[in-house]
Amino acid sequence: MSNPAKPNTERLLKQSHNNMPMGVADNYRYWGEDNTVFVKSSKGCTITDADDQTFVDFRLAYGPIILGYRDSRVDQAVIEVITERGTMSGFSTDLDSEVVELVKSMCPNIEKMRFANSGTEAVLGAVRTARGFTGRNKIVVVEGGFHGLYDEMMWKSDVDNWDSQSAQPPEIAAFGVGIPEASREHLETVPLNDFAAIDEVFTRVGHDIAAIIIEPILGNCGSIASTPEYMQTLRSMCDSNGSLLIMDEVKTGFRVAKGGVQELYGIKADLTTYAKAMGNGYAVAAFGGRADVMDIISFNAKGVTHGGTYTANMIALSAAKATLTILNETDAYGTINNAGAAIQQVLSRVFTKHGIAHKFAGPDAMFGIHFGEAVPTNYRDWKETDSALYTEFAMNLIKHGVMLEPDSREPWFICEAHKDVDLAWLEAVADQSMAEAIAA
Ligand code: PMP
């Protein structure tokens, strides 16, 4: 570490190196010896680091914060449950059905649901349920999508190391070692919005496809959106082949609209996964969908097993209940979308001033920024954008007090508390950050 302005951060990172691999609790929190962030506190749309620098945060912990950090409406509900009822008992509570009914009122495609503790667990539950229901093995995934850190979902289309002039598709590579080769046996990978590719897969192995799992807007690839026609094609391919459509709305769910992307597109998934915005930063997740599909979960010999010690604990469910009630009953989405649109206008003015061709992708609550002439239509296209300039720009923003992931595959997340962002300040900081990036 060679950052004299950050003595506390330097000390904490040094200490952490003795205690955790890479000095962090999650690989993705390691941003190098000079840039790894230690957070002391958070409030609204800001976080404050160990050396008392406060940032306006557009990273929002990779998406869960939808109202704002330390939202007293949610926190009070959790405090009440902890102090009056307890955290968990390993038994059912009245909160279970209350939260499911709330979700059902917001997401009409959900008929039955089960809870989980993370997006990874929700995806695992949905995929297992789809296999159990169909009696099939294969899962189709989309390049640039991300579905969590369990073995089977830890294969990625390696666009970073792909020559875009090559006639060959990108290699499929594991996220590091320790992932058994056998875990990719039942995966098929297709590029987003590529009709021929999905047709080819169904023609070849349609009889054994249990499900397609897709982030309908690629929350892990710059908010590149599937076209409604593409989603409609997936829907009808699944219907005519007896396969299920799983929409992974871990990032988009309860963020882009009450009913997620399914509401925006008017397309129905058979199963949907949720996490992140569902609890405004408390660890809660869920998967659900068609009642006939979900009812395969049972103890009988042909049933799918699902459970977990911490599943539907009262901290998680009281947070979900409070968050979802606010999202359902107030105009939070109007506020979030207005803030997101205003922030994009500011940024667009700055990019234009500096002569940078740029496109925004995805919804206002979760938008990607791409430096180039066109909005990428899939992960391979994204490679054509100037992601290096984006990273340079982002690192400068961070230096000046705007927090975001310095990778254009991660969207800008907006929460209700961003309504108070000083747009003139943001414009000045973005202007300076871009000037520095161009000069570098
Ligand atoms: N699905 C999607 C779409 C995600 O973005 C993520 C996490 N970024 C996951 C699943 C996994 O969620 P978690 O980190 O809570 O396990």
From TrEMBL:
<dbReference type="InterPro" id="IPR015421">
    <property type="entry name" value="PyrdxlP-dep_Trfase_major"/>
</dbReference>
<keyword id="KW-0032">Aminotransferase</keyword>
<dbReference type="InterPro" id="IPR005814">
    <property type="entry name" value="Aminotrans_3"/>
</dbReference>
<dbReference type="GO" id="GO:0008483">
    <property type="term" value="F:transaminase activity"/>
</dbReference>
<keyword id="KW-0808">Transferase</keyword>
<dbReference type="InterPro" id="IPR015424">
    <property type="entry name" value="PyrdxlP-dep_Trfase"/>
</dbReference>
<dbReference type="GO" id="GO:0030170">
    <property type="term" value="F:pyridoxal phosphate binding"/>
</dbReference>
<comment type="similarity">
    <text>Belongs to the class-III pyridoxal-phosphate-dependent aminotransferase family.</text>
</comment>
<protein>
    <submittedName>
        <fullName>Aspartate aminotransferase family protein</fullName>
    </submittedName>
</protein>
<dbReference type="Pfam" id="PF00202">
    <property type="entry name" value="Aminotran_3"/>
</dbReference>
<keyword id="KW-0663">Pyridoxal phosphate</keyword>
<dbReference type="InterPro" id="IPR049704">
    <property type="entry name" value="Aminotrans_3_PPA_site"/>
</dbReference>
<dbReference type="InterPro" id="IPR015422">
    <property type="entry name" value="PyrdxlP-dep_Trfase_small"/>
</dbReference>
